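Forum: Protein Structure Q&A
Topic: Joint prediction for protein chains with partners

I've read a bunch of threads here and the consensus seems to be that you should model interacting components together rather than docking separate models afterwards. I'd like to see that in practice. Below is the full input, 1047 residues plus whatever partners are listed. Could one of the regulars post the assembled result?
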Amino acid sequence: MLEHLLFNLLQVAVVLIFAPLASGVLARLKEIVQSKRGPSIFQPYRDLWKLFHKDEVVSEDSSWIFRFTPYVVFVTPIFVVLLIPVLTSYPLFFAFMADMLGAGFVLALGGFFAALAAVDTANPYGPMGASRTRMVGFLAEPVFMIVFFTVSFVAGSTIPYIVQQSWVTPFANFFTPSHVLLLLAFLMLILAEGGRIPVDNPTGHFEIAMIDESKSLEYSGRGFALMKWGGQMKFFVLMCVFLNVLLTPWGLAAAQTWAAVLLAIPFVLFKIFCFLLVLVVIESSLSKLRLFRIAEFLGAAFITSVAAMIAQVFLP
Amino acid sequence: MNDATQQLLQNLNALATGLFLLTAFGIVAVRQANACLNLFIVQSLLLAASAALLGLRYGTSHLYGVALVNLISKPIIVPWLLRKTSPAGIYTRREIDQVLDIPISLTIALALVIAAYFVGAPIANAVSAAYRGPNVPIGIAVLLLGAFTLTVRREALPLLIGLLVMENGAFLTGISIARDLGMLVELAIATDGLIIVFIMGVLVRAVQKQVGTTAVGALASLKETATRPETDEASS
Amino acid sequence: MSVIVIVLLPVLAALLVCIPLGLRWVMGVTVVSCLADLLLTAQLAWRVVYGHVPHELLEPAWSNWLAVDGLSVLILLFITFVASTAAIYAVGYMTHEALTLRRLRLYCANYNLFIFSMLAIPVLAEPTLVWIVVELTTLCSALLVSFYNTREALEAAWKYVVLSLMGAGLALFGFLVMFAASHAAGGQTYTWAGLVAAAPRMPPVLMQTAFLLILIGLGTKVGLVPMHTWLPDAHSQAPSPVCALLSGIETTSILYVILRLIPIMQAVQGAHAGTWALVLGLISVGTAAFLLLQVRDYKRLFAFSTVEHMGIMLTAVGLGGSAAAYGAMQQIVSHSVTKSFCFFAAGLALLATGTREIAAVRGLIRRVPVAGAALIFGGLSIAGAPPMAVFLSELLILKAGLSQGHYLAVALLAAFIVIAFFGVMAHLNRMVFGTSSNGASDRDDLRTHAGGTSSLPLSSRLALILAAVPVLLFGVYIPRPLHDLLTMAAAALSR
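Posted by a regular:
Agreed with the consensus. Here's the joint model:
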């Protein structure tokens, strides 16, 4: 029992430590694709370190929500990490608390507070970004729902630990149309939720075109560091769900020993690295959609997820 | 062939049909005429894959022939024929105003797919187990989606592709429930598809020359209540 | 050999037409091949009716592909008849249009290929092959419909191709399902005869689905009502000889495929094929009758009348029984000869006046007597006035319906026929005998366009007379061999 608790905490530590690294690697890979050298992959750590040592400026007109939000944004991914398989293929100490749906709600809570905080100060860009994020969120929500319903339909459960097994036992199940279509739909969701390129440009610096970034424009110092770190962890968590639960449930620790669990860390990091490579290809080959075309992008994701469900129904 | 392999082949076939359905949705909705053609090519490849997998699964060798015919005729000859016959503008067209806007047409398309399930279920139940499979309902669904494409599109290329998609849908079911149909017939049907492309390409070229547009579906001067053709032409 | 020769002769003609010789060669080859085909078919019909099966049908190598019985011979016979008169008609008509030789060659090649595709429908035994030649009829005739390359003609051709092929897609699905049904019943060969034999063991669900899909799919091409929208466009925009083929016989030869399903469906349990045919047929007749009242274009008038007649045939088949089947067969005959005559007459009127609009033509009988007389004669016979062929066949159908006890259907059918009669006659009457409000300007228009009867091409007038013979004859007297052929064909509609 104690071991399970410790493993659970280890998962949290892994996500805390490696989430900035993942975004550093992604940024570097993109620069390399564009024939530039790019910053070091450890640059996000330096940014966080710098921000934590800076003074924080908070608007006098802002309410408690503004001050409270960075903590929510930072903590919600950590809660989710307690629930999902990051390193082990068996449920850990806190995993009983919620299923995938619950994890989705917890993540949404962070988004909700971020949007509130953006409106809280009178900065004109904040509410704009918040409303845009909400628009993407509204459109992504039904896709999430259909994806989860289809998952539960196929696997008979929404507990991630059960779901991940059902795709590969027997191995032929990996190729069921519902699985592949779900992967496609979820990939599109990650791009939308993570603010990646066809939906939003994470490296853009024009406030007028921003969707995700403009919400944290008012933050500085420690608050900004928490917001940033939280965002990186959220992206990391989404990748973990995609890779460990939906796409490649291999390489996770099956045995309840420290050696197995520690060995799982490089495996998981390798999977994430491979996924980042794919993401770089996607991001470099597409251009950002106009705001009103995002609805069509997520519409396509919706159709894909419904097709996944239908394909499952159609199997005799 | 052991059980695991059979299961794998069956699931791979199901995967091919699932993606087949997805491409049909794409053909209903994408704006670029060229993307429509590419989706159709992908769809034909998936049809060929499904035929080959079913051939492997049930040891029906002439399904390989069907797969081969599909591999040659649709991804290679159809685009070539189109380039030969129809005006070049046909590819570069973007269709901004479909008859319905895209979310609505996708929703109707979804409803059609669900309807197809209810049509397909009794058919699937009436044939013996070896002939069943996801091919039946998905084939019907794609048949209906092709017909739907014909009703919402105006550009020549998407319309033409809608027709071919209908044929693809019928074929997808055919390779499952009418697997033992002779090779000659399948060949003849494939040739027929090519004649369709040729004739319609020629027609589109004539329309382009005469009317100056490739939005053939938007032509509507022949009506019972229409005024005299001269005034009609002047107003349009 | 005879069946194969009959079907392939037009292909040969299409090839010969491509040899770059003069105008006479192009038209002559077409006419001669059509007439030769007519003679060969008449001979084949004689042999089939009096019990000599063509020997290639007995050879196992061919027996799975080709089959000829009374019904298919009847269709063959009238395809070749209409093709011949239309070919003769076209000699004068198409050259009158002052087209280049290249265009005429294209026309003739296409025409012959179109005839080939129609001839192949009734002789092929394998349903999927029949589906393919049905597709070919659409594709071969598409360029004939768009022949004038005007905006309207192209639009009509496009609608025609898209809707017909859309229907063909549904029908293909139906044929594949039907194959599955025959396979499930253990049917050895997938032919019309094999299907009839296997029908009692077929799963009813599959056959019902297949029947409905084929009825809707091919019904599109026949011009049954909810799917008829392309028909008036295509059948009015094409050159008149092609209209005669399209309306007179192409629709019927597609209807033939639907008729083939009727005996199969009779053996399938719980299948109400007859009811479907009856309902769809009555809807077609009714809608067409009311649409006839409001047309503005006299070629469209005849096109709508085709929709009406297809409905009558389908209704007759739906009534069931051998008498109604005989009536349906006779209706096929009378419709094909009369409708082709009507389009010939309409073509002459078009040549003489230069307009297709009903409102623009008045007093035709005084200016161009031949065209006017032909038009009014065609109108009377197609609308079903005694003593013409259509009257007799419609009377037979109504009588058969009454003796079967389908009082409601017969009453509706009779009412619709009467409405259609008034629709056709009201329009044509005004065109032929009416006086226009501003007669002077009209007369000038007409005079500038054509100088009266003498300018109408001779061969077209000849074709008109040839086509008029059966219209008159079959109304008062059915020759004995034709009667036997009709009886045989009607027998093919029941098990």
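The two ends of chain B are 65 Å apart (CA to CA).
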